[in-house]
Specification:
By secondary structure, this protein is of the alpha+beta class. The protein has a single domain, classed as Alpha-Beta Complex (tRNA-splicing ligase RtcB). Helices cover 34% and strands 24% of the residues. The protein is built from 15 helices and 19 strands. The strands form four sheets. Strands 7, 8, 9, 11, 15, 16, 18 and 19 form an eight-stranded mixed β-sheet that branches. A seven-stranded mixed β-sheet has the order 1-2-3-4-5-13-12, sandwiched between helices. The chain has a two-stranded antiparallel ribbon with strand order 6-10. A hairpin with a 2-residue loop joins β12 and β13. The longest helix has 35 residues. The N and C termini lie far apart (45 Å).
């Protein structure tokens, strides 16, 4: 068959799949030759990110093109590392474009400590964090909410728990959407979903979620680093988690409902996992309001964990911890781009707004929004900034992490969790985990090289590298 992928002229790391078959728009992929060659091979597999890219490009009302970031890999119906924006009158909303872990995201916090300050007490602080922050599959948190209180949290997000004493107003200022998105309606969230949430606020969960102590290792942009409060050898804290059982249940509930909606409205269904509803339909509006509930739950969850992190640090260090930023990478949101309101789906893609955008905190507005990219517990992570080119090309979106190169099942066959922990200890990285099986699933070797993923986006001009950070201590579920 002819090659699907065409290199965009006069551009670095930007490729296209031209409109064909039922595609309503072309696809645009950010990748170098290695990433594109992997996608060429991927097309022949049963579970294919390339075919998912083309399927999403076939949905009604999609704008400009289906976008794939450099960490793209297959997901549920919609590729992880994918971005699609839809016209609000003619377009659709798809559960697959958000995923099951609604508003999974990263929060990064800053200390004034250096690596030398931390090293003598590293074991103590990792143990304190391990004991203070609930983690693991189904592990309950320290806040138990009655169902009616869950409704209040789903509407009010992070400000709700700040009012309870978990954090500060400054945290909210440096959180996407200031910690709460409008349009959340708990009536559109099932009792089963709410029941899964009532004792999970402030819990890390399992899988690829983590709490990590990191060291600023390389600074690429001095001005942006200074604006963000970052310096060489600084100790920072990053946590990665989402909406826990509530978000997963919302996804489960609506996956079948949106398939039925596709049939009801006679929408194309290029993949049975791409069930969709018109944005302005009853079904579409219900799902979007439920997603907003999930977004708010995740923001509140990370807010409480941040408070617990501060409590743990106070026991070991007399240290005032400030928040850098909190941003999600599994969402759908109404946003204005190029003068038009659209519904932007980001599935494993981080919002990355550029300089002078009004939704970027005023402190950072000159350089752009902090873009928080997680790597693996054995490699590195990055803090980037959005760019003007990214705003024009990707609806202000970027990659979200290294991206898996191996399934969890395959990783557990190849790696032994205890051995992974021992190997990382030899590199100076202390890991405390509630499950060795979970460690095996998340072994560094099960992921792509995050440096490659980030450099691809940076060289394309969609984001700008600010700092690279290295893990020094990790808490896993």
């Amino acid at each position: 068959m002819p090659d699907l992928f065409k290199k965009m002229p006069d551009r670095i790391n930007l490729w296209t799949i031209e409109k064909q078959r039922k595609m309503k728009v072309p696809a645009f992929i950010y990748g170098d030759n290695a990433i594109i060659n992997e996608l060429r091979a991927d097309y022949k597999r049963d579970w294919s990110a390339t075919r998912q890219i083309m399927n999403v490009a076939s949905l009604p009302g999609i704008q400009k093109g289906m976008l794939a970031m450099s960490d793209v890999h297959p997901g549920y119906g919609f590729p992880i590392g994918g971005v699609a924006a839809f016209d609000i009158d003619t377009g659709v909303v798809s559960m697959a474009g958000v995923g099951y872990d609604i508003n999974c995201g990263v929060r990064t916090m800053l200390t004034n400590l250096t690596k030398n300050d931390l090293e003598p007490k590293k074991k103590d602080i990792i143990s304190e964090l391990f004991n203070t922050v609930p983690a693991g599959l189904g592990k309950p948190g320290k806040i138990n909410l009655e169902i009616n209180k869950v409704d209040e949290l789903l509407v009010n997000g992070a400000p709700y728990v700040v009012e309870m004493g978990y954090g500060t107003e400054d945290d909210l200022t440096h959180t996407e959407e200031n910690g709460v998105i409008k349009g959340a309606n708990p009536k559109n969230v099932s009792f089963k979903a709410k029941k899964r949430q009532y004792n999970q606020i402030g819990t890390l969960g399992s899988g690829n979620h983590y709490l990590e102590l990191q060291i600023v290792d390389k600074i690429f942009d001095e001005e942006a680093a200074k604006t963000y409060g970052l310096f060489q050898n600084q100790v920072i804290i990053s946590l990665h988690c989402g909406s826990r059982g509530l978000g997963h249940q919302i996804g489960t509930d609506y996956s079948t409902q949106l398939v039925r909606a596709s049939q009801k409205y006679n929408l194309p269904l290029p993949d049975k996992e791409l069930g969709s509803a018109p944005i302005k339909s009853v079904e579409g509006e219900r799902y979007i309001s439920a997603v907003n509930c999930g977004i708010n739950a995740a923001l509140a969850n990370r807010q409480v964990i941040a408070h617990l992190v501060r409590q743990a640090f106070k026991k070991i260090f007399d240290e005032d911890i400030k928040q850098l930023y909190d941003v999600g990478h599994n969402t759908c949101k109404f946003e204005v781009h190029n003068g038009k309101e659209v519904l932007v789906h980001r599935k494993g893609s981080t919002r990355a707004f550029g300089p002078n955008h009004p939704q970027v905190p005023s402190k950072y507005r000159k350089v752009g929004q902090p873009v928080l990219i997680g790597g693996t517990m054995g490699t590195s992570s990055y803090i980037l900034t959005g760019t003007e080119l990214g705003m024009k090309e990707t609806f202000g979106s970027a990659c979200h992490g290294a991206g898996r190169s191996m399934s969890r099942k395959a990783a557990k066959k190849k790696y032994w969790g205890k051995t992974v922990v021992q190997d990382l200890a030899q590199k100076g990285i202390m890991v405390r985990a509630h499950s060795f099986a979970g460690v095996a699933e998340e072994a560094p070797g099960a992921y792509k090289k995050v440096e490659h993923v980030v450099n691809t986006m940076h060289d394309a001009g969609v984001v700008n590298k600010v700092v690279q950070v290295l893990p020094i201590g990790v808490v896993k579920g």
